[in-house]
Amino acid sequence: MRWLRRFWEARPRLGPPGVVWANRSWLAMGVAIGVVLTILFTSGVQPLFREPTEWEKGKLVVLSGLDLSENGQRQALINQWNAEHPEQPAEIVELPLEADGQRSEMVARAREKADNVDVFNLDVTWTAEFAQSGYLRPLSGVDTSGFLRRPLESCRYQGVLWALPFNTDAGLLFYRKDLVPEEPLGLDDIATTSLRALRSDRDARLTAGFGGQFDDYEGLTVNALELIWAEKGDVVDETGKVVIDSERTRRALRWLADGLKGGEPVVLPESRDQNELLTTQAFRDGKIVFMRNWPVAHRALEGNRGESAGRPGIEFEVMRLTGPSVLGGQNLAISSKSKKPRAAQALIEFLTGPRSQQLLFERGGLAATRGIVYQDSIVTRKHLYAGTLLKAIEDARLRPVTPYYSRFSDEFRNVIRYALDHDGALPADAVEALTGALQGR
Amino acid sequence: MEDVDQRRSSTTPRYAGALMLAAVAGHLLSQAAVGALATWQSWVLYGLGTALLVVSASAIDRLNRVAKRIRLRWVVFTAVLLVSAGLVALAAPPVVAYGRVLLLGCPQPTEVRVLTSVDAEPVVSEVARKFEQHTSARNHGCRTARLYVFSAPGNQGANALRASWSSQDLREIGPHPDVWLPDSTTETNEVARRTGGIGSAVRIRPGESVAFSPVVLGVPPAIARDVVSGTPETWGELFTKVGGTGIPIVRPNPLMAIDGKLATEALYESLTPAVVERRVQEAVRPPAGAAVITTEQVLLRRNRGCAEKPCLTALYPSDTYRADYPLNLVEWDAPDVSNLAAREPARRFQEWLGTQEGMSALNAAGLRPARQAAGSAFREELGVRAGLVLDRAEAAPDDDAHTAFQKSYEQAKRDGRVWLTLDASGSMAEQTVSGETRFAVATEGVRKALTQMGEKDTYGLSVFNNDEVRRLVPLGRRDKEATTAALNAVRPTGGTPLHQAILDGLDRVGADDADHVGAVIALTDGEDTTSAQTRQDVVNTVAQKGIRVFIIAVGDASCSAHALTEITDASGGECRDSTTNTLGDDLVALFRRVWGGAG
């Protein structure tokens, strides 16, 4: 312990060479000079070397998933940009439909040395990963007014704006008008109304009450989160802490696990193998009373609601989920390796601008990220659900924000699958496994 | 002592110290201003860096003073420097890595793309998850690789690799693979040969088989009890016995799937091809109660999810071949998609599959590693058995035999007779992005598709709108230009009598006979609006006639939403959702399938 005491006694002499802590004026002066010089440099000298503002020339490569808009409206917008800006033509490189495949190819390309991509079209859940890995260039000097709050929030990570929202999405609750006398307020209402409809023999085709996407893919994560939120439970709180082990969460999972069983199931048992398309088909075939789905299902159903081909028509209505929805959609971001960042930013601003958003929603059916579009009379006439959707988006929540989102989603689905097979009980290590997954373990 | 120090210190080091602090303060200010210090972790890192700077400067100064009193100080100095440099070089990487994980969390794992077959995807995914977990064991709990496992139907994966992964493959199959794990070594050889040349952007490094799974005949347990005898039996014997019970025998298309191919090759050795072809059905979803030709692992996994175990019992013909799953490394040379970082973890995945842990993972997933006995996953109640006696040394017949097989298969299959009917309702006049109408896009697709016509194949063509079906080209062999010209004269307008058109097509094609196999292909962009017949009428007729119906849904039409699949499922056809972009390719693929080739 003697050396410790000696160290303590020598303390006044430790520090920068020759500086004795006792002589504080030198330190104070050093700090003061440093601060003054920095301020002088940043405000006086740097502006002299300000970068040029005109757009770089050359092709802009946009990496994006398959265009799901009606009539290729996305490509139509790009064509329009190319006509107006022949020196900065944009080209979409289309990636596979499956989101995981898109992410895989984007990550691999982002790691290349070559400048091979200018703009990423990122799923809302990937912002954190791409920003943390250094694949993105932060946006500056962008006017973000006019964007809806939630979609814009998904573009930020750690206080920095990394992207602009391209299109957004929120889950809606579809229901059969003839079987549902009043809109349900919670999961219990859905169960009660379903059982009443099933027992009333009003429709022989009915086999269950509620249908969702419970196949083992991102749809399961989304649907399970929404059910938990509907019971006012939660999985990860605002501070990033895993809070899945609560009575409310267990109640939601029990509702689902119990609902899938029995002779008059509240939840369609087949929905454990269903994605969005199959759920739509089950609803259209009159098998279920309620359906959770994205607004794109509304378009598919709207065109086929009438009676035809020996199949009775259905009368359906759409409302918000009984709890908050998961926020879907995609954001546009600039690659950190792009040699044309200013032109890329201009393209992004063009694609997310009010006119493009209007066209994408009105003609392409992709939900706009700007509030003003929802007030347009053509949009509200063509997409009857626009008002409901706007409220759902404003009320929607982000999936947990972490650079390891895909890992988290994998682990969360393990937990949910276990719960569904065990009457809604959580696995013993659920909290530990999810906490680890949030940190990439 | 202090007095001495005070006296010896001049003002120069004070300037130096002040300058250093000035630099630190300035840098701190600028970092804070641009928002680089947004998290507490970054503040901790900044503090650590500053402390290190100050302490090391102080240490050098102190060392300098001590050194002045030592003899041979340059020698000592150099020695100390070398030793400390060595220490730092050894200790720094793990310490830094651990500190990084503590402060910033795990680094992102390297992305490795694994292409496999549709049948093998669930197995490979399960094994890949275990490998990911394995990589975290020696890395502070952080996974170093993430394996994205995806699949392509039939030989599409091999074709895409041969074509250096075109932009269409990127869109329709998946990302550029770093690992290719096909069903069979025979598939690999040809692709590896073709891609090795100059000018090819892809190089395949063929690897060894990691495990195998024999091709089996899965039958309902009740049938298995009747059929099984004590002695080993060949494919021919088992096929004849099971065929005698009257249940359908379902086989995947042998030009598309390896299990279908290997079983058929073994069957042709003992039975006449035409006999085999008349007895089997080709279907994507086998009906309940049917016998199924498949690999053992597929059957095992299907039985796991079965309510009443087992759904199917595996019969192991003594002369069966096997899928042998080679792991090939894929290297890309193009500078923008090379994914160099993936090569190392891909190689480690390959090595790991050869270790005890890897083989156990394969075994648990339902495969049989060559050097390890079948484990506890292979149980009677799952319809499989652990012990296995197979006659053949080779996993599959060699390439020469394959060419001969293809020929006899095609001869055994009958000539195709196709009735094509196109939607000419008003909505087909709608413009696509390219400025053409949907109908024009469809016409172009038909022209392309007709190039797939085989020597003895025939076709006929009609269009439907309002409430009538108009025959444009009668059944027979016609040149393609005549068809295109006839289609160009059509002006789309009115309603959509889809059902009527399909029923009319069924009449035109006529029943299948010894020389011909028929199919009806309908292209529509909306639901039936004007037919007198209901969908159920069509389903009944299709089921009764047994002629395959294929539907391509574009525009507003949707296979699922309109339940068009009900019509196509009635006879083992297919409904495909298409877009105006991919319509041409989808038509070509369908025609190729109907006319007997691989699709």
From TrEMBL, chain A:
This is Multiple sugar transport system substrate-binding protein. Keywords: Membrane, Signal, Sugar transport, Transmembrane, Transmembrane helix, Transport. GO terms for cellular component: ATP-binding cassette (ABC) transporter complex, substrate-binding subunit-containing. Belongs to the bacterial solute-binding protein 1 family. The lineage of its organism: Bacteria, Bacillati, Actinomycetota, Actinomycetes, Pseudonocardiales. InterPro entries: SBP. The keyword Transport applies. The keyword Transmembrane applies. The chain crosses the membrane at residues 21-41.
TrEMBL record, chain B:
It comes from the Bacteria. Residues 417-594 form the VWFA domain. Pfam families: SBP_bac_11 (PF13531), VWA_2 (PF13519). Keywords: Membrane, Transmembrane, Transmembrane helix. SUPFAM superfamilies: Periplasmic binding protein-like II, vWA-like. The chain crosses the membrane at residues 15-37, 43-60, 72-92. InterPro entries: VWF_A (IPR002035), vWFA_dom_sf (IPR036465). This is Mg-chelatase subunit ChlD. It comes from Lentzea fradiae. The lineage of its organism: Bacteria, Bacillati, Actinomycetota, Actinomycetes, Pseudonocardiales.
